[in-house]
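Figure 6 in text form: structure in, sequence out.
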């Protein structure tokens, strides 16, 4: 006697949901997965409303990977089914990584045709004059994610502005968010927990960003893509040595194996984390200090981080300098990772080369959301 779907109780159960352990049929799996994303969208704004406004232009950060491919598919379905009234676009950033991003962008082009969504591709090369291949040649593999992350943030904003878009959505899933919560706790960055678990975030100088897959498990996203036969690119970035996240990921996967609810439980913990009043007061004081006229030059908007890193690259940032900046990380104000010190290390060939870097790293705060 076949096991029946625990939702419709008529069709044969073919899938065990990784998130809940429920045995369900394929159709009910699709329905429940999409419905949960719909709930995140319609209740995810701060205060409880929808993250979208009717008529909004929304760019889907499309990397060609499973998460953003499933996101493009599900948003297209939900936009139609629930008449969100969104104008959807695909926005891809070409980081300039041969043998990786060029291949995944081919997948995005296929998605463009399949979903009938306009696609804009913007490259680091055209924006910054640097590809990640060149950056890695210069700074080595170890720190390259920092450059890539800062550049991508800014590139997505630029691309979105070029499209006249009000809102960017990304495929960050529940596993990504739980990992980030763990990493922030392990670093003592508790001030970040609420922000990193918010569905929607916006700072003064950036376009609104949302994560409709906040509660979608990675395993379910892969299952959804598999059963829907979606086209996606599944290779890991050839330069991604994000060791710290790697440990958090392995730990999370171990926890998930023992107790599947661990992922969502960790997210809930991050959401419920409330700073006590003394900490809030010191954060406020820090904010005032950070925006005082004397500090104004150091408090440039997010785009300045990309500029500062570029300045470093243009000045000939080498591996040794990068290592030094990494080791020099001091106390992080307001829960932010920062690089307040830089031990000067002049290059033999060019006595001025590191000055730009020195200024740059003093100014850069690397948000590790
Ligand atoms: N090159 C890019 N262009 C546009 N959006 C991107 C790009 N890289 C990442 N993103 C966005 O950021 C999200 C998280 O990126 P991350 O690098 O963690 O990849 P991922 O978890 O493997 O996701 P995906 O499976 O979509 O590649 C992606 O789902 C996507 O929405």
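Output sequence:
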């Amino acid at each position: 006697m076949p096991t029946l779907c625990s939702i419709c109780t008529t069709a044969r159960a073919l899938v065990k949901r990784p998130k809940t352990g429920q045995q369900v049929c394929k159709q009910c799996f699709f329905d429940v997965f999409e419905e949960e994303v719909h709930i995140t969208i319609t209740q995810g704004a701060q205060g409880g409303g929808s993250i979208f406004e009717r008529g909004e232009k929304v760019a889907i950060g499309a990397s060609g990977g499973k998460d953003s491919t499933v996101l493009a598919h599900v948003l297209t379905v939900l936009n139609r089914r629930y008449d969100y009234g969104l104008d959807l676009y695909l926005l891809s950033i070409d980081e300039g990584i041969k043998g990786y991003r060029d291949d995944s962008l081919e997948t995005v082009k296929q998605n463009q045709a399949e979903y009938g969504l306009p696609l804009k591709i913007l490259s680091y090369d055209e924006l910054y004059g640097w590809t990640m291949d060149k950056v890695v040649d210069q700074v080595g593999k170890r720190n390259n994610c920092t450059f890539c992350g800062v550049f991508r943030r800014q590139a997505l904003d630029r691309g979105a502005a070029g499209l006249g878009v009000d809102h960017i959505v990304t495929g960050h899933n529940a596993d990504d968010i739980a990992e980030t919560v763990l990493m922030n706790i392990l670093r003592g960055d508790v001030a970040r927990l609420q922000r990193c678990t918010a569905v929607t975030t916006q700072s003064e100088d950036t376009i609104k960003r949302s994560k409709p897959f906040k509660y979608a498990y990675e395993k379910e996203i892969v299952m959804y893509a598999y059963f829907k036969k979606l086209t996606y690119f599944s290779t890991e970035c050839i330069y991604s040595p994000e060791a710290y996240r790697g440990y958090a990921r392995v730990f999370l996967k171990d926890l998930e194996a023992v107790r599947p609810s661990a992922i969502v439980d960790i997210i809930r913990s991050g959401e419920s984390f409330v700073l006590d009043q003394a900490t809030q007061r010191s954060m406020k004081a820090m904010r005032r200090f950070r925006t005082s006229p004397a500090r104004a030059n150091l408090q440039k908007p997010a785009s300045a981080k990309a500029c500062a890193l570029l300045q470093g690259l243009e000045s000939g940032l080498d591996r040794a300098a990068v290592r030094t900046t990494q080791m020099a990380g001091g106390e992080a104000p307001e829960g932010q990772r920062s690089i307040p010190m830089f031990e000067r290390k002049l290059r033999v060939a060019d006595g001025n080369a590191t000055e730009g870097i020195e200024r740059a790293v003093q100014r850069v705060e690397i948000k590790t959301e």
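Caption detail: Residues 290-299, 320-369 have pLDDT under 50 and may be disordered.
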